[in-house]
Amino acid sequence: MPSSPDVVIIGSGIGGGTLANRLVQHGLTVTMLERGDYLPQERENWDVDAVFANQRYVPAETWLDKHGVAFRPGTYYYVGGSSKMFGAAMLRLREKDFQELEHAGGVSPAWPITYRQLAPYYNLAEQLYGIHGEAGVDPTEPSDVPRYPYPALEHEPVIEQVASALKNRGIKPFALPVAVQRHPGGPCIRCKTCDGFPCQVHAKTDAEIAAVRPALASGKLTLKTNALATRLLLTSDGRRVNAVEYQSDGHIESITAPVIVLSASAVNSSVLLLHSACDKAPNGVSNSSGVVGRNYMAHNNTALMSIGWKINETKFQKTICINDFYFGDHDFKYPMGNIQGLGKLQTGMLTAKQKFLPKFLGDRMAERSVDWWIMSEDLPDPGNRVLLQGNTIRLHYTENNMVGHKRLVEKARSLMSQIGFGLNIAKHMGGLSVSHQCGTVRFGSDPSKAALNEFCRSFDHENLFVVDASFFPSSSAVNPALTIAAQAIRVADHMAKNDFGITGIGNAS
Ligand SMILES: Cc1cc2nc3c(=O)[nH]c(=O)nc-3n(C[C@H](O)[C@H](O)[C@H](O)COP(=O)(O)OP(=O)(O)OC[C@H]3O[C@@H](n4cnc5c(N)ncnc54)[C@H](O)[C@@H]3O)c2cc1C
Ligand code: SF4
Fold this sequence. Notes:
Elements: E1 7-10, H1 14-25, E2 30-33, H2 48-53, E3 63-64, E4 70-71, E5 101-103, E6 106-108, H3 115-128, H4 157-168, E7 174-175, H5 207-217, E8 221-224, E9 228-234, E10 241-248, E11 251-255, E12 259-262, H6 266-275, E13 300-307, E14 320-322, E15 338-341, H7 347-353, H8 359-368, E16 369-376, E17 385-389, E18 392-396, H9 402-418, E19 423-428, E20 464-466, H10 481-500
Parallel strand pairs: 1-2, 1-12, 2-8, 12-20
Antiparallel strand pairs: 3-4, 5-6, 7-14, 9-10, 10-11, 13-16, 13-19, 14-15, 15-16, 17-18
Helix pairs in contact: 1-5, 1-10, 3-10, 7-8
The protein binds flavin-adenine dinucleotide and iron/sulfur cluster (SF4).
Flavin-adenine dinucleotide (FAD) binds next to α1, β9, α6 and α10.
């Protein structure tokens, strides 16, 4: 490991991996500390029982909920972070998501940047992650989305029939943009085990495949796996982070660099900041505002199984998306959110969660279901927060803004029953579904209300950045990964210019 890289990044997920990828393109040297290892390529990657019933890839640790009850969080500690398991849906936020927006349950705050400022970086992120999609068909899409790197994945026959039946009812289903290598010559075999599974053939363009591996190939990134960052150590005046302390091979070590970036995911980044409290930062590092750990969000999510009489042989179901109700409709004027195809549900996924469900019944349900992920915005609430109870993480979360979400679930059920799906079973995922965690180290323009400025630089410590889902001041109602990646590229360009005087590629606005 170089003793003094230009930048140290903690975490190799969408935020950290994308940032590293861009920084090495600027010629900077980066050392990355990752608590996990490479996710093994093995038969179990695509084994439903191993992944769902046995939770093979879920970390062994437990967190506590607001009642102090322990649960195993669905967050992932590998090179590539949670994106190793992600569903690969990569959408832009809507332009209005960057503005203050009134919901039935309260106000979603404005971001300190506009859509226009992030748009060039969305373009770059879509290229980096090699997205398949079709511009101009999503009714709420921003107006300037360029052609995607690859054409949209075609629907399989049953989904094509669903899309066409929905169109006949005036709905505008469109092709969900996805990060899989299904272009000619690409390794994707279009399987049934993508969303919620690692890709055994490395065809999903997660953060490891799309960002970290190419950065390693440049020779400018050093990746230290099994290196758990435990504290950020401040300089004596408290204005900068001097070093990162980490555990590796049973030893405590430290590393220093002119710039330190925390990209450990929304929950773990806030934990590290809180855990680094010291004389100079008694409430935690970068926490003079008191917001660190607060405003935790993760979307209001419901899985819907729409069961009809036809056998659904679809393998890759995440090709369809509906945004007709995103900002409301004629009989509900508030935002409701997004409906998208869920990875095809299989019996083992159902029985893993519903132990009482007989297998034969699960088989009949799964073979006839079209499955949906229904996602609405949850609102930032300072009381929804990450806390440390000794060394254990406590997630204090009470759901909010459920009126719009329930309306959306009812819309989806009603639409599906109109097109012939007689049985619609909805399962609300509840507040401990941490997959879309965000908001715990928010960015903003007022240092008394936010921890980071618009470039994710700490207001309190000039050489510290937090670049992962933590920075979101609102959660929107689309999947977060593309926005994390776009902002990571934007931050890299800003950092290269402002911290290292490099003006080459990129142009941070
Ligand atoms: C099952 C599932 C499906 C999903 N589907 C989608 C989808 O379809 N589309 C979408 O946009 N999003 C999806 N997501 C969410 C998406 O994966 C996350 O939003 C994204 O990965 C978050 O990026 P991040 O950089 O904030 O954190 P992560 O990607 O989680 O990366 C954080 C990294 O930091 C490491 N780390 C943590 N603590 C430390 C420490 N103390 N020291 C060193 N390293 C540390 C972790 O091991 C990890 O590698 C899904 C998530 C899951 C779990
Ligand atoms: S659908 Fe393609 S990218 Fe997804 S897991 Fe299967 S092979 Fe991998």
